Amino acid sequence: MNGKMPKAVLIDNDEAMRKAIETVMPEARHRLCIWHIGKNVFIHLKSKEKLKAFNKCKRKYQTVEQFERLWQEMIDELDLHDDIWMGNMNEKIDKFCQAFFSDIFMAGMRSTQRCEGINKEFKRVLGKGKSLVELVALAYRLLMKLRHN
Prior knowledge:
Number of helices: 7
Largest sheet: 2 strands, parallel
Radius of gyration: 19 Å
């Protein structure tokens, strides 16, 4: 990378990946994938009302002060003070809320969607039981297809 390191890295909530990136790119700020967070919100909060409130908090255009006020209102109104998952997310708010990344150009990226899409395509195309030769040929065709889309 010609001696230049990224200012931010967009990842899912994988702790091993976070530690590895922290070691290799200590200056990069970690940002959590909003798609993965959204997927987990409904699983843990189990309510459309709570999901709606959570999504309102992580909205794109707001200041840190606005976010913190909305976040606290959500915690109070929905009585989430003792929710373990929300407590965990509270410790990570600076990693998924847009307000905390207004100083870093992210080209509108908020999720690992591109990477997830490539992984899905590889799994679909490659499947099981392929020889190494078939694997390489299929991987090459898939990469060419993705490159031209």
